[in-house]
Amino acid sequence: MKYDFDTVHDRQNAPYQYSSKWADIKSNRDRYNYGNPLPADRIALHTADMDFACAPAIVDAMVKTAQHGIYGYTMIPNEYYDAVRGWFSRRFGWEFERGDIYPCMDGTHTAVRNCIEAFSKPGDGIILMLPSYGYHNDIDPLGRHEVDIYLKEDNGYYTVDFEALEEACKPAENTMMIMIQPHNPTGRIWTHEELNKIADICRRNNVIIVTDEVHIDIIRKGLKCEPMMKACGPQGIVSTTAVNKTFNMAGMAMTNVIIQDPELKEKYKFRASATPFGVSCVIAAYNDSEDWVEELNEYVDMLMEYAVDRIHKELPKAKVIIPEGTYTIWIDFRPYGLTAAEVNKKINDAHVMLKMGSVFDDADGDCWARICLSSPKSMVAEALDRIVAQFRDLA
Ligand SMILES: Cc1ncc(COP(=O)(O)O)c(C=O)c1O
Fold this sequence. Notes:
Elements: H1 26-32, E1 43-44, H2 56-68, H3 78-92, E2 101-104, H4 107-119, E3 125-130, H5 136-139, E4 145-150, E5 152-154, E6 157-159, H6 162-169, E7 174-180, H7 192-204, E8 208-212, H8 228-232, E9 237-242, H9 244-247, E10 255-259, H10 262-267, H11 276-288, H12 290-314, E11 328-332, H13 340-349, E12 352-353, E13 355-356, E14 368-372, H14 377-391
Parallel strand pairs: 1-12, 3-4, 3-7, 7-8, 8-9
Antiparallel strand pairs: 2-10, 5-6, 9-10, 11-14, 13-14
Helix pairs in contact: 2-11, 3-11, 6-7, 12-14
Bound molecules: pyridoxal-5'-phosphate.
Pyridoxal-5'-phosphate (PLP) binds next to α4.
C-alpha cells in the first residue's frame, strides 16, 4: 500500500488534536459510566471518526493555508464547486450544476436542521427509519416531532418496511423523511428499486426526502452505491454530502447540500460562512486524494473480514454480517440471553467505548452494539481481545 493505515497516532494527549472521541470530557464520562477520570487504557471505537492520518494532499493544503498567515473573510471559488461536481460525476455518474451546491460549513447536522426549517413547519412530523443514526436531537428542538418506523431485520440484514412507510406518510402533518444512504448503523446500501419505492411513496404523499449520504464513498469491494437523487431524480429530494467520513475530516465540518428541485431551492435560504482551511481541504480531498480513498476502502475491507471472522469464531453466539457500506459493524448480542444492561456492562468493563443499540433507538436496546472499524488493525485487535474475554465464560 502507498498509504499508511497501520500507525497508531496519539489522539488522547497530542497537542493541537482536540479529539472529542478520545478526550476525557463529560459527554464521554456520562455515556460510559466510568466515573472521572476515564480509564487511561480505553479504546474509543464509538464515534464514526477514523484514527488514520489524512491523505498527504490534504495535509499539504492545510499547511500551505496555515503558512499564509492571514485568515480573513473567505470566498468560495469556482475551483471548490468544480471539485465537488467532479468527484460525484467521476465516481457516481451523478451530474449537478454549481448552483445546485449549497455549502454548509457547520457540518451535516446543521445542514439537516436547515432542511427541517426550510421544508417543514413547526408541528410537522419527520419520519425516521430505526435503528438510525441520531437525528433525534435535531427534530424536537425545532418544534417538529419524530415519527418512527422500524426496518425489518432478518439475521442482521435489514430491509425497508414499505407498509409502515406508507402508513407513516399518510397523515398530512408528516411532511419530511430523513434517509441515510448507505445506512448507519446497519450498513445497508439501498438498491435502485428500494430507493425508487421509497421516493414513490413519499412523492405520492408530498413528503420531502432529506437523504444523508455522508458515508457514500465507503463501500465494500465490488459494490456500488447510488446517490438517491441520481436513482430517483431530483423532485422532492435533497442530499447532504460531505468530506467528513470519506477523508477523515469531521472536525472541518464541511458539508454540501445538493438541491436540484426548483421548488426546494426557492425555500432553502441559508448562506455559508467559509474558512480558508475548509475551502482548501475540500479542494485537496476531492481533486487530489482519490487513490487514498481506494486504499482506505481496501483497508476497511480487510478490517471487516478480520473482525467478522474473529467474532464468528470467538464470540460464537453473537451475530454479525459484513455490511455493504460504511465502516461500522452492527453486532447482535441477543443470543447470549443477557439483559441490555448486562451487555452494556461487559463492553464497559472491557474499557472499549462502543455505541450501544439504544443510541440508535434499536427495539432491543443495548443488546446490539456498533463498532467503528476505522482504526489501525492493532487497535481493533486489542479491542476484540478485550470484548471476547468478557463473553468467554458464556460461550
Ligand atoms: C450518517 C451520519 N450522518 C451525519 C453524521 C454527522 O455528520 P457531521 O459531523 O457532519 O454533522 C454522522 C456521524 O457519525 C453520520 O454517521
